[in-house]
Each structure stands twice: as C-alpha cells, then as structure tokens.
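tokens incoming
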C-alpha cells in the first residue's frame, strides 16, 4: 500500500518528525490537529494502515519515520516499547541486570519499575511480556537516562539494580542470580553508593541479605561501608531466600541475623566460587 499522505495526515507526521516525538496518542493527535476524538482516531487508523504508524497499545502509536523507506518497519527494540507503557518508569531487576552486564542471560520478560498502580501489571505487546513492578515513592530512585540499543530510556543504575533485585529477588532470577550479580560486579559496583541505596530503601531484610552475601562471597566490603550495613541489621531474622521457594531450613548467621535457606550448590551455581 502507498505511503502517500493527505494534508491533515502530513501535518501530523511532520509535527512528530520535527519534534522528534516517536510516540503519539489519540489525545495528543486531537491537540496537534485541533480535531475531535473520532476524527483523530480515524487519522491514526489510516496512518497505521499506510505504515506511517504502528500500534503499540490501543490508542498509542509508534511513528515509522520516512527514513525507513517504502518497506516501513516498526521499531523492534523492546525497551523502546516498554518506555511507552507507563509513566513514571525505569527498567530494573533482570532487565537492567542484563543491560549492565551483571547478568549473562536476557530475561524473557521486561521488568519496569513504576509508582503507577493503575492498569494491568502484566502486558503482552507485540509478543513480548512486560511486567510492571509497583514501587512506593521511597523506593523509586536511582535511575538515569541511557542509550539502550538506539533508544533513550530510563534505566536503574547498577547499584539500584542490585538493591531492587535484593528487595524482590523473584523479578531478578532469584537469590542465586542476585549473588552472581554481586560477584560479577565486585570491581565495577560503587559499594558506598550500594550501601547508601540499601539504607535508603529502609528494608532491614535487604541490608541483611546484602551483608551476608558480601561476606559469603568474600567481596572485601570493609570499614565504614561494612559498619553502615551492620547498623542496618534489624532484630528480626529473615530468610535469605523466599521460604515458599527454598523452605524454612538452613544455617543461621549471627553476624547478619539471617537464615541461609538456599543450598550452597544452588546459591553458587551461577558463579565460580566454591
């Protein structure tokens, strides 16, 4: 089908390209074209049929710029798509771990941290699964804009990636994978920032997991940083791994007041330490 444009359609496409706006909604189209909801919807539908736009979710469209030529292919970068699904957001957990090289395997699911509670938590867009992980305002920090495979998106910093993963291991491949993140990042991670972020989240169990894993992996976290982590140890005794996954047995560590219920062979399965 031809990619020809009517004057009204041309106005919208030129606006999007001039403003470098890669995504447009029905409501934005109404403003740009000064038209009704139904008219805006019809314009977007025609542009999608002619491959100037590609639908992301109902009412939200991706611009396919003229530079892509007559074959007009949509963006295949899942992080670009994920960045359009919710506001505010940042990528974290297994997704950010792979981006930063803290994990060696890309997750089949894209994990997005957000404070927005509305909408579905799991969405399938263009065959890809996107998991919205709702964070309270106190935990929603530590992200920066990065270039991810050609798209500018918000990504958790490496240290915040680890903190988020310690807080909710199920979204990061579970505790053995989080231990591997610490091992792979032992030289690259900013441990002072990591301790600061762990304290800022205000989760004693998270601090206890971090301190215990650092000791177990002999990561040489000493001095002021270690003291700060020890100061965050609570009176409760959490499990290292989720009891419903790893059971309630295991060895008690008196320093970090934590029960290591993850079999050592499993815990170290992703790293070289034995």
């Amino acid at each position: 089908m031809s990619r020809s444009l009517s004057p009204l359609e041309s106005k919208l496409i030129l606006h999007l390209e001039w403003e470098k706006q890669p995504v447009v909604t029905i409501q934005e189209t109404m403003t740009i074209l000064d038209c009704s909801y139904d008219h805006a919807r019809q314009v977007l539908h025609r542009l999608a049929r002619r491959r100037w736009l590609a639908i992301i979710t109902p009412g939200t469209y991706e611009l396919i710029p003229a530079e892509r030529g007559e074959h007009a292919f949509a963006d295949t970068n899942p992080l670009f798509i994920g960045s359009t699904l919710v506001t505010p957001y940042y990528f974290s957990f297994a997704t950010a771990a792979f981006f930063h090289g803290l994990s060696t395997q890309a997750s089949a699911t894209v994990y997005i941290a957000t404070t927005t509670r509305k909408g579905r938590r799991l969405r399938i867009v263009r065959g890809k699964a996107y998991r919205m992980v709702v964070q309270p305002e106190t935990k929603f920090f530590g992200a920066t804009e990065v270039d991810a495979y050609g798209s500018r998106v918000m990504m958790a910093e490496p240290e915040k990636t680890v903190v988020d993963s310690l807080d909710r291991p199920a979204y990061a491949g579970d505790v053995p994978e989080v231990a591997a993140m610490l091992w792979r990042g032992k030289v690259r991670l900013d441990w002072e920032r990591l301790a600061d972020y762990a304290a800022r989240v205000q989760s004693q169990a998270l601090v206890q997991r971090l301190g215990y894993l650092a000791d177990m992996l002999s990561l040489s976290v000493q001095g002021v940083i270690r003291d700060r982590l020890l100061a965050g140890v609570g009176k409760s005794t959490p499990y290292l791994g989720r009891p419903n996954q790893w059971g309630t047995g295991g060895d008690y560590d008196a320093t970090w007041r934590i029960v290591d219920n993850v079999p050592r062979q499993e815990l170290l399965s992703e790293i070289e330490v034995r």
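note: The radius of gyration is 23 Å.
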